[in-house]
UniProtKB/TrEMBL annotation:
Gene Ontology CC terms: DASH complex; mitotic spindle; mitotic spindle pole body; spindle microtubule
Protein known as: DASH complex subunit DAD1
One GO term (biological process): cell division
Keyword annotations: Cell cycle, Cell division, Centromere, Chromosome, Cytoplasm, Cytoskeleton, Kinetochore, Microtubule, Mitosis, Nucleus
Organism: Ascobolus immersus RN42
GO MF annotation list: microtubule plus-end binding
TM segment ranges: none
Entry superkingdom: Eukaryota
Subcellular localization: Chromosome, Centromere, Kinetochore; Cytoplasm, Cytoskeleton, Spindle; Nucleus
Length: 112
């Protein structure tokens, strides 16, 4: 068996570095704990914000679905009004002379 080499006494610098390192180890763990805690807080905040966005999107979706359903309900009324408008326009455009004559004849009848 070989004997370990004799150790020399540590210098002031080596002792200071050793003490400094021994103090840093708990600080590293504390820093890690602090960062993990901050990470959890941030993740919780992000999670809550995403839930709020999802709730807003669901509300918007229900509103859009309501507008679409009202639009579908009014299609029949729109078709009826369009047919009425076409009938009125065709009636006015087909015989404007007859309307003028009808107006003149009514005026003549009123004078007689």
């Amino acid at each position: 068996m070989s004997t370990p080499p004799p150790s020399r006494p540590k210098t002031y610098f080596e002792r200071t570095v050793s003490i400094f390192r021994s103090c840093l180890i708990p600080l590293r763990h504390a820093d890690h704990f602090f960062r993990a805690e901050q990470r959890e807080i941030l993740l919780t905040d992000i999670s809550l914000a995403l839930e709020n966005v999802l709730t807003g999107l669901n509300t918007l979706n229900r509103g859009i679905e309501g507008v679409v359903s009202v639009g579908k309900e009014l299609e029949g009324v729109e078709t009826l009004w369009r047919q009425f408008e076409k009938g009125v326009m065709e009636g006015q455009g087909a015989n404007p002379a007859a309307e003028e004559q009808g107006g003149e004849s009514a005026g003549k009848e009123g004078r007689s």
